[in-house]
Amino acid sequence: MTDIPDDGPVLAPSREDGVVTALSESIGGPLGRHAWGRRRWFSAAAILVFLTSLTFAVGLVQKKACYDDTWSDAGERYTHLCYSDLPYLYTLRGFAEQEWPYSQDPDVRERYPQVMEYPVGISYYAWAASYVTHWIVHPDDDRASQPTEKLWGLPGMSHEIQVWVAVNVVGFAGAALLASWLLAGTNRRRPWDAAAFALSPALALTGIVNWDLLAVLCVAGALWAWARGRPLLTGVCLGLGTATKLYPLFLLGGVLVACVRRRRWRELAAVTLAGALAWVVVDLPAYVTGPHEWSVFWSFNADRGPDLGSLWLVATQVFDVGIAAHTVNSWSWLLFGLWCLGVLVLGLRAPRTPRLAQLGFLIVAGFLLVNKVYSPQYVLWLLPLAVLARPRWRDQLVWQACEVVYFCAVWWYLGGELAAGAGGDVPFYWLAVLIRVAGELYLVGVVVRDVLCPWRDPVAVTEDEAGPALPGLSPSPPEPKLSR
Fold first, then answer.
1. Residue-range definition of the domain harbouring residue 304
2. Is residue 37 within 8 Å of residue 191, measured between CB atoms?
3. What's phi and psi for 468, nearest 5 deg?
4. Strand, coil or helix: 39
5. CB of 116 within 8 A of CB of 100?
6. Where is this region: Disordered (predicted)?
7. Looking at residue 380, what is its pLDDT?
């Protein structure tokens, strides 16, 4: 939980971030100490929300080529880097007929044998979006009598799919704007740390590839609630996030370290119980109506072999070997467990209690590094954690540049653009995966350095200079002053 008082001045990035300082020279130099508005964190938050809207809009423009032809051109969706899962799942998972994703009706399951393979939060959202889509379009065709493989070609279906995507995207935009506002308010003296989220190229490129922004909002809410000393709300946000994507669960490891360091057993219990209760409440309707369909998310991921973006896939292609799904599962979870153990030791032995964003970033990054798949939009999992864990533009640009390289390469790889001229090897794709991994390891290394040497961490320096803790927080052992 934060130790920064509410009434401190807002820190100007042009006075403490080297990249921003250099850029500010073209508009008059760094902000002066007595400039108007330096105490208005909410003004900064409003600006960041506006910048987020611009970034999101740029991402939509970048997807225009695919939107115009309803993602029907298989080559264009890869060469133009505008692929999205949304349009295809509208007809393939029953949303075009407003079928409940967890229906056990034999006729529904015969017609749609492939169940929605995502956690319940995404399924609920997509199902609700299908109702909004039908309310807008009012389809009057007899699609129930048509084979599902022909639904895509029905008259008017292209427009309906475009509306479906637009309905989903409106919600994604709201999630991105609210996440930006929450990140800006996590540390009232440092709202501009969220600028790397608001202006993120990763956000623009991957925001509508899948439904991951819903989980990003939950993570941003958890970071905000934890910083404000609200453990119950923190747990609820993590529970809702876990019901939407699994990875928010991993932030409980960061909460554990912080609570053990500061002996906040009540807060630990509150976060854990509230999170578990929120997850159960959200999952219960799906489990009650279709327990087998509910379990598909778990079985789908367990049966998945080495897949896109992972080091496992690179190994299978480079060495021309097959690795069974069971083998990958065992080794990836073993490596992730060892990684979490390392984060635990780091957090407990650090000179001062690491921030939740730092611990959460390290845990989630470790999961993505050893996981058997790295879909392009998974960069969003790290984004809110990364911008608060290491609020320096240089480091953010290095990391996100590596992610952009991978984003471009994965679509060109799927489009067959990266195959070597002499055969089927794809060395440029392997290189892109390694670049992505190197970028993540670089940011991991910088965050670990900040944890071990807190005088290098700009947020820790701010906390050390801020004074007493926020009113209303339970007392905690004093943190050591920063020293070299």
1. 42-466
2. no
3. -70, 165
4. coil
5. no
6. 465-484
7. 98
Which of the pair, 140 or 201, is modelled with greater confidence?
A: 201
d(CA 184, CA 91): 38
- The pLDDT confidence band at residue 462, using thresholds 50, 70 and 90, is confident
Q: Give one DSSP letter per residue of 365-428, joined into a string.
A: HHHHHHSS---GGGHHHHHHHHHHHS--HHHHHHHHHHHHHHHHHHHHHHTT-S--TTSS--HH
pLDDT at residue 140, as a whole number? 82
Q: Report the distance separating Cα 468 and Cα 245, nearest Å.
A: 36
Q: Is 125 within the bounds of a domain?
A: yes
Q: Are 402 and 436 in contact (CB under 8 A)?
A: yes
Cα–Cα distance, 395 to 399 (Å, whole number): 6
pLDDT of residue 422: 55
Residue 471 lies in a domain: no
Q: Where does the pLDDT of residue 294 fall: very low under 50, low under 70, confident under 90, or very high at 90 and above? A: very high
Q: How far apart are CA 147 and CA 299, in angstroms?
A: 27
Q: Is the pLDDT of residue 211 over 60?
A: yes
Nearest of 14, 158, 138 to residue 87 by alpha carbon: 158
CA distance 479 to 461: 12
Stronger pLDDT, 171 or 468, i.e. the higher one: 171
One-letter amino acid of 308: L
pLDDT at 332: 96
CA distance 195 to 319: 42
Averaged pLDDT, 64-78 = 92
**pTM metric for this prediction:** 0.90
Q: Distance from first CA to last CA of the chain, Å, rounded?
A: 24
Q: What does residue 189 show for φ and ψ, rounded to 5 degrees? A: -85, -15
- How distant, in Å, are the alpha carbons of 109, 177, 193, 242, 369 from that of 387? 43, 15, 6, 21, 18
Q: Residue 102 domain-assigned?
A: yes
pLDDT at 465 over 90: no
Amino acid at 1: M
Number of residues that this document lists for the chain:
484
* Structural domain count of the chain: 1
User: What does the block give as tokens for 328?
Assistant: 């990958």
pLDDT band per the 50, 70, 90 thresholds, residue 472: very low
Rounded Cα distance between 102 and 126, Å, is 12
Q: Alpha-carbon distance 251 to 157, whole Å?
A: 41
Question: What gap in Å lies between CA 265 and CA 441, rounded to an integer?
Answer: 32
DSSP 67-89: HHTTT--TTHHHHTT---SHHHH
